[in-house]
Amino acid sequence: MAAIFHHPTTGAAATTTFPQSILSPHLPFPHYPSKSPQVISSISLSKTPLSLPKPKRQLISSSTTSPTQFPSASNPQTLQPLFPQKPNTHSNSSINNDPPTIDYFNLLRLSVRYGDIELAMSVHASILKLEEEDTHLSNALIVAYLKLGLVTHAHKVFLGLSCPNVVSYSAMISGFAKSNREVLAVQLFFEMRGSGIEPNEFSFVAILTACIRLSELKLGFQVHSLAMKMGHLECTFVSNALMGLYSKCGCLDFVVSLFDEMPQRDIASWNTLIVGVVKDLDYDGGFDLFRNMQRIDGFRVDQFTLSTLLVASTGCLAWMGGREIHAHAQRIGLESNLSVNNALIGFYTKCGNVRDVVALFERMPLKDIITWTEMITAYMEFGLIGMAVETFDRMPERNCVSYNALLAGYCQNGKGSRALVLFCKMVEGGVELTDFTLTSVINACGLLMEVKISEQIHGFVVKFGFGSNDCIEAALLDMYTRCGRMADAEEMFYHCPANQSSSITWTSMICGYARNGQPDEAISLFCLMRVEDMVVDEVAMAAALGVCGTLGFRAIGEQIHCLALKSGFMCDVGVGNGIISMYYKCGNMEDAVKAFSLMSKHDIVSWNSLMAGYLLYRQGDEALDVRSKIEKAGLNPDAVTFLLVISASRHKLKFS
């Protein structure tokens, strides 16, 4: 079956074929790859209970309730969690119009409002003394504990219920999903199904939150099918959560189709679609959706919309677009919003200058750990290592992300020794080590090109069991090649199982061959990568373009240039520099100049490449003219620039 929809960006009709199990739950379910097969291996939406422990329940009766609201998975602020409202009537209940019971609800609300855990526990103790079970009151207690971060306490209240209802289950599923216990959330969902309780829209939002955090696309398809069968897709919050899952898993066509079929949308629906489009690198499409949102539904943008559009502006280096979004945020009163300001710091780091970033940071009325970390990244991006370290020292609190930003900044600026010293301090101080941490310290070893240190770091990585990670393996390959250990790099690369190899490891090997004077092997591996239909990233393209220039392979270089255009990598400075270098080394200075002029942003390497091309063709005046343009662009010349200027000056004197 196919769903016909109109893409909100282009307006063109398109056809998306959903898996059969979505549109017809009774048909066989096809296999879809799961990113966490070891977590959920054989789940079906039958009503067979799973083996979740069910202790003997202590209390006796239950009462009917109204649904509890839970946050949307795609936008946590879409649904505000509320305490279950006390029903107007209770049949055969001794708590009807009972003032003490009403006080319990009010006290629980106060405990959450002021973060008073002791008050919540006192109310819990009083509830336990009641002669009859009140499921509605127990549900309010579960929600209060979850809001206070006491997931274990909430679970104990849940286990004490003799007849938990859909609200009880939905609250606990949501609580587990948001507290890194996603597998328990999934198990509890199927226990609820096995007990004969039908999920409501809040149950679906809760289980989809777990699917999003697990990136469980297969389970998400089944939940989609069940929601469709039960008629809950008309609920905006359920559709938003499904869109969030498909966006997380890269299924943009499904996101668009769901969006088109929604009977009613809210701002979170538009935000989820915009996020999906921007994540797919369609930055212009994100701005088109922003305009359509205001024109079609008349929604006023919120902080999530503006933050996403700033990410789009950063991705496509749209200086004016980002400035306009900044001005729009000021017009609608969001200039002091924390998330918007954090996104603005990232935008001005990539598209502005350090003065813009510092001025914004100093004006911010509220700063969090993300703000401080963004400033460390910004200073490192501009090469201001001292300012980055000073900012790190001034931070009110730090986490592993802050340390990682400083560590990566040292590597980015060629300070391998300082990166190793910081890493040792992190290990001694018990700071959490992530894949990003180890990747950065491996890169630091590559910068130092010390064989002994590289062996020690490799041993550390193996000892802590991180060797099977693709990013770390790629970093190890890169470290081997930088240290001249090509035999070890080849052994690691060619002994990696085919089903575990990724494009990033191929990229590392291509760069290693190019770096160690083996251009034939590099271009052969790049061509094999294309034959294997693997994703080629901008780093591999830049390396292959450099090799084509070295070997004089102009025809292959032109094909890679076309591939870069098709893949949308022309905004990448490294790819642009590689194209300039390839063309002038292959005897086509005219195309090299044209490629330079089409680049949206230049760095010092871009100007050096252009100057080197002019010198190669004995055009000393043009080379010296490039030197004056470097000064006008506000860039700091490096050692290569000065050597090229000296060569250009000698050339001019020789032929004058």
From TrEMBL:
Compositional bias ranges of the Polar residues kind: 75-97
InterPro entries from the UniProt entry: PPR_At4g14850-like_plant, PPR_rpt, TPR-like_helical_dom_sf
Entry keyword annotation includes Amino-acid biosynthesis: no
GO molecular function terms noted in the UniProt entry: RNA binding
Ranges annotated as biased composition (Low complexity): 61-74
Gene Ontology biological process terms, A to Z: RNA modification
Annotated PPR repeat ranges: 165-199, 368-398, 399-433, 502-536, 603-637
Alphabetical list of Gene3D superfamilies matching this protein: Tetratricopeptide repeat domain
Keyword annotations: Repeat
Keyword Magnesium included in the entry's annotation: no
Residue stretches in coiled coil: none
Region annotation Disordered: where it falls in the sequence: 51-97
Protein name: Pentatricopeptide repeat-containing protein
Organism for this UniProt entry: Camellia sinensis var. sinensis (China tea)
